[in-house]
Amino acid sequence: MVLQPVIGIEVHVQLLTESKVFCSCSTQFGAEPNSNTCPVCLGLPGVLPVLNKKVVELAVKAALALNCEITRRSQFARKNYFYPDLTKGFQITQFDLPIATNGYIDVDVSENGGEAKTKRIRINRLHIEEDSGKSLHGEALNVEGTSLIDFNRCGVPLVEIVTEPDIESPEQARQYLLKLKTIMQYCGISDCNMEEGSLRCDANISLRNEDGSLGTRCEIKNLNSFRFAKRAIEYEMRRQAEVLEAGEKVKQATYGFNAATGKTFMMRTKEESQDYRYFPEPDLVFLEVDDDRIEATRKMMPELPDAKRERLTKQYRIPKYDAMVLSTSQEIADYFEKCASLHPNGKAVSNWVMGSVLGLLKERNIGIADCPVSPTRLAELLNLVADGKISGKIAKDVFEQIVETGKSPEAIVSEQNLGTVSDESAIADIIREVADKRPDLVAKLQSGKLNVLGFFVGQVMKRTKGQADPQIVNQIIRKVLLKE
Amino acid sequence: MGLVAWVAQNTSLVFCFFANISFDGAAFRLLFSRTRASKSYCHFAGLLLNSGAGTSFLRKGNQTFHVEERLKDVCRLGISDLSSLIARGGLSAVQAAETAIERAQSNQTELNAFVSIDEKGALARAEALDSLGVDARAGMKLFGVPIAVKDNICVKGGRTTCGSQMLQRFVSPFDATVVRNLTDAGAVIIGKTNLDEFAMGSSTETSCFGPTRNPHDTSRSCGGSSGGSAAAVASFCAPCALGTDTGGSIRQPASFCGVLGLKPTYGLVSRYGLVAFAPSFDQIGPITRDVKDAALLLSVLAGHDPLDATSVDRPVEEYSRLLDDDVAEIKVGVIGEHIEAEGLTPAVKSTMNDALKALQDIGASISQVSLPSLEYAVAIYYVLGTAETSSNMLRYDGVRYGHRASGFSDLADMYRKTRGEGFSREVKRRIILGTFVLSMGYYDAYYERAQRARTLVMRDFDIAFEGVDVLVGPTSPQQAFMIGEKVDDPLLMYLSDIFTIPANLAGLPAVSLPFGKDADGLPIGVQLIGKPFDEARMLRLANALMKRNCSS
């Protein structure tokens, strides 16, 4: 019995602002503990929050990028609970009236190696909230029984993005997260750096009952990588299925995920869940976003991944798959486009970018901004190949040398005399030398067995150290040995 | 499930985190107890309050009097007279500060108006002012004027206790915006005044520093929660003080102490640095002895503050400029529900009659208006106000600052003990009520309904203000009550704010004017309520009314 999983995802994205959401403290990651704090984010008696305008701008941008409806008059609320790293005893968030609702993301998912299908995942809401501080406990400090709190993160702006329970598989969940991250990065909304916690993910999972009704859901908190998210969902699906198969009922609860064991563990049951006693934040006024502001933001929006993919496919005549890979990051797409503007064969450029360039980045674990081969250099290299000045095989070597030396492809080719041997008489001489050594094969060839042609081509290539153009060699062999 | 059952079910009260209250079945007694502890209070001799006209000697010239003689009367001077006297060199800022401090100190045993008196800081500040040249003094409206500040308003470097054990040693690292406005205008803060704990109360009895006594009769309450400020001004420790008003906390003590208390329109004065009690109601305002001073002080306090999102961006008015203009065109509405309310003492009734007569005398047109929703004002206020309070008090958890209990077993135990020890009964009572009205399953029935009812009150005011410019009624149903009389009877205590709460619900400006006295010499206040940001007109009427009262 395979039960259909029903998955919803909540993501917290840290907004790329210089200062915090309700005060002017820096949001810089990794600063000396408690150095980025002030009376406001420390929640001292008498302080008041003032909303950072940049936060609103980025939230509206995110809402537009996720095809949401923007609430013209949204409201902040207090979520009340006790926790040492929560300075005011409440988190300022949005509850009844979030800044955006009803959006969606389309993701392409190929299940079990099948053909990719587009799946629309609806977004229920997007709202602005503040982050809390960070508690450090004994073990981490090498001081048993002591807990310290770093409030640098307290008041850092977040948007929470909540999907409808539209996700039907762990892989869809992973693809949703990847797409969301790409969109956020495209728009400069967040750097989505998971190590620094600027993208955090919780998943809600239930199994659909046989009659189609929804089962009891469990939440898995703090999934701090996309791979873990997928694994945690897979594990949780199995766990729930086992519970049901054993004739028991799934209990609504919140779980954590242990990446080391690959298992989820229970944190609290529904009965233990808190009543947050949300109510409108009296220290802040309604957040008004009018049409002018939305239009102004819309004008500032960059081309989004889906649109870029469409355009790249058409403009450069490259396969949809290539366009998708290239548009996973704006920088990679920009690199491709810069190169493709200097070299006419789009497919050749995408092959090289997806192969050599991305391979190099992965090998060196660097971003494309740090790629030692600039798009201009790559275009120069491809132009040499296209003009027949070097062979494709040599081009790979030249690429390696650009990486090592940073020299231009022309310089490398001329210095090392790597240019294609296109002197027909020189190639003909070599062919004759080879032919003298293997009269048997010459006879075979001349008797019409064209499959030995490859041997002669190979020999010539070997003797010219790959600098000859195989097609030209082929023609000359036919001319010299077959008198064609 | 009602409150009793709810409290019983949540016996551990994880949401509130108190330790030292027992909830077993008797919770209702805790909340609405009518039992009263019998307490006896010493009766101090009432202070002799001469009504000597402080301004008269000025007219005779600065050089006529010996300094000592002058200092005796300095305390009785109004703000503008005092500041111009100091600015012109007739008196030094240091002399003014010394006089005020000396008076504050000597009254302290009897009145307990102050939580702290900052002699050193005030004198240093006064010295700095004295060293300023004529040009620098020119723009300062409060040059050298001693002022007392309620102790829930942050003043950098000194203690800001809110009258609570929780913050008994808390030192704020910043100045409230109003404090900056005051010091920029040349005022000298002489100390912080006593208040009900976190401003929750109407008698200044819930302060952990003990009650402040009424200067007119020290066996009586000075009102509250800004009782210390009202008593300080009434006893001539300073010509003016800052109070805060959430449900009447400026106006009711002003009425009890025979001084003027002004609650500005919500949003006119910055709340940054005011320790929140119920943020959608809280406003800071002046307590003075006359309208002119209140107007002058308000023009210093008012103004847009980028640190307060609820502060309104509009040009600051010179409220004292048109005070003496004609009031004949001002249409006054008498609040029927207030003037005919049950429980008004005969003295309050007769004072109201005097006030209405005075209004007629000065030519104002008077009509009676009805605001039916005011019946619900106290109920609305105690649902919404306690809801906000329960949230605002969460930060006092012993983790970062303020009181922390010693000897706890774990985090929850630290919360329980810290909050159990740090808060008094009144604060706990309001936290429990507020937690209840916001809880799942009760939010709609209480908070949401009260919020809707609040808009009805606003609408009633809107309708009333279509026909009139200023509303008039009593500030309080009675004169100052005895200390200990109501402190154990929360409902009775809550009802003493019945006439002041509506202005807070609607965010309107309101002022309590000292207008009469009963046979025992206890002051009685008259309340005017104005349209939003229409303080100028309201104060103009107040000025005419008080002048008429003095001359009759």
Textual characterization of the structure:
The complex is a heterodimer of chains A (484) and B (552). In chain A, the strands form four sheets. In chain A, strands 2-6-7-10-1-11-12-13-14 form a nine-stranded mixed beta sheet. Chain A is α+β, with helices and mostly antiparallel strands. About 9% of the residues of chain B have low confidence. Chain B is globular, with a radius of gyration of 23 Å. Chain B has an eleven-stranded mixed beta sheet with strand order 1-3-2-6-8-7-12-13-11-9-10, sandwiched between helices. A two-stranded antiparallel sheet of chain B has the order 4-5. In chain B, helix 10 packs parallel to helix 11. At the A-B interface, loops of A face helix 15 of B.
Provide tags for this entry.
heterodimer; A: 484 residues; alpha+beta; Arc Repressor Mutant, subunit A; 3 domains; 9-stranded mixed sheet; 3-stranded antiparallel sheet; 16 helices; 40% helix; 19% strand; elongated; B: 552 residues; alpha/beta; 11-stranded mixed sheet; two-stranded antiparallel ribbon; 21 helices; globular
